[in-house]
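User: Can you predict the 3D structure for this chain?
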Amino acid sequence: MTEHGDFSYDPTTRTIRGILLPFGELSRTSVSQTEPVMFGADNIDLPRDPDVITLNRNHNRHDPIGRATFLEKRATGVYSEFRVADTDEGNDYLRDNIDANGKPKPGALSKLSAEVTDFVRDGAKAIKARLTGAATVTEGAFAGAGLFAIAPEALADEASDTLAEAIAGFRGDLATLTDALNGLTAKDPEAAPAPGTDPDKEKEALMGNIVPDGTVATTTPRPTLEGLFAALTRNDADSLAPYAAAGELFALQTVQQSGPTTVTIGADTQETGYLGELWTRAPYQRRFVPLVDQATLTNYTMRGWRWVEGKRPEVADYAGNTQEVPSNALDTEPVDVTAARLAGGHRLDRRFRDFNDQSVIASYLVNQAEDYKRKTDGKVLAAIMAAGTVTAPGTVPAGIAKGLAAVVDGALGVIATENRPAFALIDPALWRDIVLTPKDDVLAFLNAGFGLEEGDMAGFKLMPAAVGAGKVFVGAKEALTYYELGETPIRVDGVQPGNGAEDIAVFGYWATLANNAQAIRSVTVAA
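Assistant: Here is the predicted structure, written as structure tokens:
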């Protein structure tokens, strides 16, 4: 058994033993300058089960290090035993406060200090209190243990304070005791005991439940928050006097909304509010489908035709005078478009339909339709990239972004096919340099590069897209057509009564057709 400050510590069982609250001993002055107080055995209530008393450091209830295993009222005070928890905090406490020889380190938390609530007092005499916790501190409110934080000046003067020494344990004569109590109740001299009072009866009054004249003590009602707020509003000494012992004197019993302790009420009493579906992103809007022609799918397979390149009807110089009119070979070719499909479905429990959870079904369909837009938009981008005709990049003028020069190169290729460039899709790395170029410079360069007059760029769109590193695609709107079946996607529902379920699915049909691959140009900038 290693002696440790004012309590003993058993390293084999991690047990601390000592007096938690001494009887017949006047406390020191608190930080809040609250009058000292003295406890007796009849003035403190202990819990039947000591396990509810938590041991913490410096009265910090969020820093528990152990629990009580034994509490008992003895002649000298409340005797207590605590087991230091096998936790990081408990190990830290033992490591930081006990040296290798089992002695307390300088400034160690080697004092026990009680925490109480429901506290009622009559001057220096405690009338009633209930033990609710304990702490390890460097200096307690009592010389033999502790109750609340001590004012620094009280510690500094403790060695020379003969009044405190005379009062502690009721040592000294009645005159010394009377002088001490007079000093403690200087604001109300009538509260001090009159000379000639029987010392034994006075000690009994301070340690029990009677006042010096033998009458039953009258306790004041327990202070309330409403009363405290009213007293603060009035701001006078008489109104605030009943609350002088509140605050730092004793720790209030905490009822928490949630952790870290188990004394909580939130999970049992709180009501849950419905939030509905939470926002994650803006609805998807197609970016690439609007760049090309759009048409309706009327059949699963659709057939058209076009002139074979080089065998279109042509004209030539004609001399007249009844000579033969120029003629050339003609040829056409059929063009078939076959629809492709997109679909998705799930089987949902009927409760989403039978109860007020139909917003789940509605959101499900919205998300399916949104993903259909996203996927078909990707199909159009893939079709543009697949149809692109490779065009060699030209020389990049000084001070011009490489991506911007590639746009002009691609646009010139489209113009060469007698089509008008309508869009440019640009690698995001190249797009950044274009965006950082002043807008007027961009428009002037494009207008000049396309050989168009000012204002003719109004319908041209530049946008970043995942087209590949260093690549730019420039195309005419008519170069590619996107086909889609009516109002898509199509919703299909089916009830499965044997499974208590509802099947929900969506279907969509789409197709793309490159009408003129020469009118879509792919340019890769030089490294």
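Residues 351 and 357 are 8 Å apart (CA to CA). The first strand starts at residue 2 and ends at 4.
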